Amino acid sequence: MQCRGLAATTWIMCVMNLAGLVMVEWDSPGAMGQAIFYGVLIAATYIVLWFYWKRKNWARILVMLGAVISVVNLIFIHEVNLPTQIVIVLEFVFGVYMLWWLNTYAVKAYFQAPEA
């Protein structure tokens, strides 16, 4: 049994995950450190997404936590450059959707049901 929307949300998160590199201020002296930080964060997120795809409930919970962070990030929108602002708005919209979708009865039941 496959959960409707799981593939789409996984792929969207995979693509949006790479958008984290937009947040690196490439002109700053600390660009390499920022790139390493975001690179490690992106790699860790892909590991969580793998387990999300494999229907691990703890990964669903971490994805919800990420969605909460994406909603909260909206308060920082005035402190960043335009490309980062665009990413923040897209992540906000997707985060609100994910908070709703991941808490629907069907999705929660799918993640909590024993695997066949």
Strand elements, count: 0
Instruction: Calculate Rg over CA atoms.
Output: 15 Å
Q: Return the structural class.
A: mainly alpha
Percent helix, as a range, is 55-70%
Low-confidence stretches: none
Q: Main β-sheet, in a few words?
A: none
pLDDT averaged over residues: 92
Morphology call: elongated
- Tally of individual helices: 5
Distance between the termini: 8 Å
Order of helices and strands: HHHHH
Beta-sheet strand percentage?
A: under 5%
Quickly describe the structure.
The chain is an all-alpha fold. It has helices spanning about 5-20, 30-55, 55-70, 80-100, 105-110.
What does this entry look like structurally?
12% of the residues are buried. This protein has 116 residues and is mostly helical. The longest helix is centred in the middle third of the chain and has 23 residues, at 31-53. It contains five helices and no strands. The model has no long low-confidence stretch (mean pLDDT 92). α1 packs antiparallel against α2 (31-53). It has helices at residues 6-18, 31-53, 57-72, 82-101, 105-112.
What attributes characterize this protein structure?
116 residues; single chain; 5 helices; mainly alpha
Please write out the topology:
Blueprint: H1 6-18, H2 31-53, H3 57-72, H4 82-101, H5 105-112
